[in-house]
Amino acid sequence: MFNVLNIVLLLVFVLIFPGALFTSAVGLWLAGVDRKVLARMQHRIGPPIRQPLYDFLKLMGKETIIPHAANKTVYLGAPIVGFVSLAMIMLFIPVGGFVAVSGSADLVVILYLITIPGVALIVGGSSSGSPYAGIGISREMVTMMAYELPFVLVLLAVARKVGGANLVFSMESIAAWQAANGSLLFHWSMIPAAIAMLLVIPAEVGTQPFDVAEAETEICEGPLVEYSGAPLGLFKLNTAMKMFVMTGLFTALFMGGLRTGIVVLDVVIFVVICTVLTILSMTTIHAVTARLKIEHLFKFYWTFVAGMALLSLVLVWFGL
Amino acid sequence: MIQHFPVMAVMLLFLGAFLVAIFGRISPVIRDGIAILIATISLVLIYALIKPVMIDGQIISYWMGNWEPVEGYAIGIGYEVDALGLFFALLVVTTFWLSGIYSLGYLKKDANKMHYYTLYLMLSASVLGLVLTGDLFNMFIMIEIMTFASVALTAFRNKQAIALEAAFKYLVLGSIGSSMTLAGVALMYRVCHTLNMAQISSIIGGEFNLTTIMAFGLIVAGLGVKSYIVPFHTPAADAYTAAPTSISMIFSGMVNKAGVYGIIRMVYVVFRAMDRSSIQILLVVFGAVTMFIGVTMALAQHDFKRLLAFHSISQIGYVITAIGLGTALGLNAGLFHAMNHTLFKGLLFLTAGAVLTATGTTNLDKLGGLSKRMPVTTVCFLVGAFSISGLPPFNGFASKWMVYQAIYTKAVESGNILFAIATITALIVSVMTLASFIKVTQAVFFGQENPENANAKEVPVIMQIPMVIMAVLCVLTGLFYNVVEKFLLAPAAGAALGVSNYIDKMMGAGYAKAAGITDIEAAPAAFSFWNPLVWLLLFVVVFLGVYIVMATSKSTRGRMLEGGEGYDPKYATFFSGEQEEFSQVGGSDLFWGFKTDWKGYYKVLQGLHSGIVTDYASYIVMGAAIIILVMFICLR
Amino acid sequence: MFKKLVDNSALKSPWIYHINTGSCNGCDIELVAVLTPRYDAERFGFRLAGTPRHADIVVVSGPITSQSKERLIRTLAQVPEPKCVVSLGSCPRSGNVFKGSYSVEGPLEKYVHVDVSVAGCTPKPEAIMEGLYKAAQILKEKREAMKK
After folding, report:
1. Does residue A261 contact residue A97 with C-beta atoms inside 8 Å?
2. pLDDT tens digits for range C50-89
3. How large is the greatest C-alpha to C-alpha distance in chain A, in angstroms?
4. Higher pLDDT, B186 or A170
5. Burial of C144 per CB tally in 10 Å (0-12, 13-18, 19+)
6. Which residue has the higher pLDDT, B17 or B205?
7. Cα angle vertex B21, ends B15, B26, to 5°?
8. How far apart are CA A195 and CA A191, in angstroms?
9. Is the CB of A57 inside 8 Å of chain C's CB atoms?
10. Quick one: which of A149, A120, A108 has its CA closest to A237?
11. Less packed terminus of chain B by CB within 10 Å, N or C?
12. Stretch among A46-50, A56-60, A217-221, B118-122 having the lowest mean pLDDT
């Protein structure tokens, strides 16, 4: 594991292909599609699809003001930590047929790595010393607790369905199982889990109606209130990347069996599926709902969404 | 020579306690010197045992006064150090040594330091003796010394009402636990006519009759009180809050670990009941309930130390759940988490102590914005908080991953839905742990600065050293989890599962075989999930890469501006209200959205934690009754 | 090349922060009208930002009352460069019908350099759109002029 070539290869993975560059490119694409389709749904013309890229580049060119109350190191480090960990998560998720790192990752690692960008946002916001950020991080954390239960249930249901006695959480065995037995989405007992996962995605990414943490009209974008310039741009990029990571995870978990054998084609299909999922799970819900209150959000996830996932887990547990 | 080390380590500490009491009056230097010197010697003696016991696989036995077994009956007090005992002994010595160093700086303003050091050495000696002894009654005596030293230390700052109240609760409830243990030990003596644990194990041979079931139940319940599993957890919260922080660290780092060690020793070695699924389910259910109630209580706290106390309870739940699985992986996971808990919870208590020293309070609503004034403490706190929340690459992640893996594998293998529920609980508790530490982060270290703490200063170096050591250990054990697993966990788990060696060493070779004892087959713990080192390296490289790119792309990137001294609206926090008003989002109400949804649940919990000793005593009796009842139903 | 990209993006993604300094709400609803599907300013990348730290264009409406003056100055200072200030309607320019009141401390020019001024009581959404677009162009010029 520890020779130079391996490290260089890993570095290429992290920086370019499934990692930073690819993820941010696809993430910005997804964010652009989201905004465009949302506009069309509201009978607007909407911004061009490359609008998120413009936003990101513009923010790179703005001043970065570090407020008096902020702890400089944490304040500037937080967005970078989120960015790097998002780039690294993509290595664990099989993109189409392409598996960057085999045998060293599983669902629990992914589950925990996915929380890091959220924690980075929380710690960064907290370090800025603004009371708006204080309320924002509280909501962000409650949102995290809210979607974590259904998320965990979904992962356990998948693990049980695929379940070998050993390696229960292995991403690879999930892909292999689906290649042999067809995608999990087409097993009827997994459909409630898939719906639950579709509802987890918008909360994890933080799009309306689950954007209580960053409610720009009531608490001034919550944790991001003091951020400006490049760190803000990175946070916006992180949100876009999260879109890809979460939809990608859904694709890998529930539609991992779809392979043509040609890697490039597989990757294109993967991105297309992610785009469809983005429209399905984020844009549509965004277009028809208004922002929830935090206690409603929590209740919704711990009753309805968790109930769906639990239904799947119970069905799967009894061998269906 | 080497077989004298364990007993020397214990006896020196007892001796030190008397020396401090006698000569401590002469000068503070002699008093502190004796305490630290003795603690250091003891530390070295125990660390010297790593090679023979952990690596070479020896078991060290020592008969006090050379009273060896006569006619096959062990009469004298025997010390027996196998890898399991040594594993906990290492945690114990590390904890009290660091605590001793810390208290040099921490106790600056307290009177009666001589009493403190006497009791501190007593407590250390008793816990060390508890994990090293091979004698059931000796174990009880050590539990008694431990309890009373703890009570006295809880009441050390006896000018505060809460200290006396906590000490009283601890005294009453701890005594109930000790009495139950004593009753159990007496019953065992009646059945086996010996008190040596190795011999009891071979006489019982994993079979139970009515008397031994009663004894087993009483001893496990008694040790449960010492490890603060729910419903025995009630004295912990007050005691941890009221005791000086260096002692809170000892409580969470080794006193409740002593209870955990006792439970492992009883269920795996002495009574050998872990191959029965009823005992597994009993422990897993108690563990799962403990971690859930612990963490939800912690979420509602608004005192830093009290919050940590409830987290201690919650994390012990993980340990009990994992060891209750009865598998090699589960045992590995439980021991690993116990060790990590010692490290990160000790670290967190030390940071709480640092905050207390700097500001004079641990009330989350009165703090805020300390990160700029106390950078070292902040970094140490963040390391501890991320470790306990199980974020990679810190040690909590490695051990929690093992715990999940162990429980879910067990669930899939046995098909029992209870284990699946335990897995879900463990995963949810983890994110709740994160939530409550985010609360502390916001309320103490970040957020708006409270004007009352404007002159808080970083704590002296002598207090920083233990914190930094523990923070470094948290990171190292997370990165090199496979080294830890190979040299510490695997031998310790092997010792718990391989009972016959333990018996043979004490009672003479072939004794176990003659009694018909067979070891539980220890399947090699399949354990490799990722290589954190490579990932961390990658992370650092990419992090630096991004940072450098951002720092050098001056032509495109906007300026980075940082305000100087004085008020400048450009660098002020954005408000729509009055200029720079103090409106810190404090700790008590940070998760109100969550708490509104859980109103009913919290109402019940609040009612249960009434603070009345009689209520708490009844919980203990009820808990013990449940344990004994389940055992009677299942083991007969 | 990269710098040029960034400069161009300044034109393409101007985020608006709106300060009401005692306006009668007439201008405010017209500004919101600009963002509705009929006029859809998001075509050009306009977005309402929640905090001055995110803003590129600050839109000020109202005659600047004594109560809001200090907050206005504070908020304007917190916007990172490059930034544009747009005065919306007649009030911030002249005080309009509120001129001479003891509690009005306008015009806006006294406190900050105004880049674009959209007149009218209230201005039509088309006029606001044009003003905002001009502000975005000024933003790009300012960005190009930014020297390190």
Report:
1. yes
2. 888 888 899 988 888 888 888 888 888 888 878 889 988 8
3. 59
4. B186
5. middle
6. B17
7. 120
8. 6
9. yes
10. A120
11. N
12. A217-221
C2 has a chain B CB within 8 A of its CB: yes
What ipTM does the predicted assembly reach? 0.86
- Least confident segment among A179-183, B62-66, B126-130, C115-119: A179-183
- Local structure of B451: helix, strand or coil: helix
Residue A65: which H helix or E strand, with range? strand A64-66
- Give the confidence band of A1 by pLDDT, cuts at 50, 70, 90: very low
* Residue of chain B nearest C50, judged by CA positions: B574
Residue with tokens 């306006």: C23
**Confidence at residue B182, expressed as pLDDT on a 0 to 100 scale:** 92
CB atoms within 10 A of CB B509: 10
Q: Is the separation of the CB atoms in A96 and A270 below 8 Å?
A: yes
Could you give the CA distance from residue B398 to residue A109 in angstroms, rounded to a whole number?
A: 10
3-class secondary structure per residue, A237-253: HHHHHHHHHHHHHHHHH
CA–CA gap between residue C14 and residue C137 (Å, rounded): 10
Mutate to test the interface with C, among B550, B571, B576, B580 (most CBs of C within 10 A): B576
Q: Using CB atoms, which residue from A65, A165, A317 is nearest to B561?
A: A65
Beta bridge partners of B319: none
Residues in chain B: 636
Distance (Å, whole) CA B122 – CA B231: 28
Identify the burial level of A4 via C-beta atoms within 10 angstroms of its C-beta, where 0-12 means exposed, 13-18 middle and 19 or more buried: exposed
How far is Cα A92 from Cα A90, in angstroms, rounded to an integer? 5
Per the structure block, which two tokens stand in for A202?
A: 């918008």
- Assess A46–C contact: CB distance below 8 Å, yes or no: yes
Taking residues B239-266, report their average pLDDT: 87
Is C18 strand, coil or helix?
strand
Asked if pLDDT for residue A5 goes beyond 50, the answer is yes
Verify whether the Cβ–Cβ distance B428 to A152 is below 8 Å: yes
Expressed in percent and rounded to 5, the helix, strand and coil fractions of chain B are: 75, 5, 25
Which residues are B135's β-sheet partners? B196
For residue C10, give how far its alpha carbon lies from the nearest alpha carbon of chain A (Å).
5
Cβ-in-10-Å burial (0-12, 13-18, 19+) of B482 comes to middle
Nearest Cα neighbor of A74 from A133, A144, A127, A18 is A127
Q: Decide: residue C77, CB within 10 A, 0-12 exposed, 13-18 middle, 19+ buried.
A: middle
What subunits touch chain C, counting only 3 or more CB pairs under 8 A? A, B
pLDDT tens per residue across span B388-403: 888 877 888 888 888 8
Q: In chain A, what percentage of residues exceed pLDDT 70?
A: 92
Q: What pLDDT does residue C4 have?
A: 77
What are the residues whose beta carbons fall under 8 Å from the beta carbon of A73, sequence distance 6 or more?
Answer: none
The structure's pTM equals 0.88
| Percent of chain B's residues with pLDDT above 70 | 90
More confident residue, B219 or C9: B219
Answer yes or no: are the C-beta atoms of B193 and B148 closer than 8 Å: no
Q: Return the amino acid letter for A11.
A: L
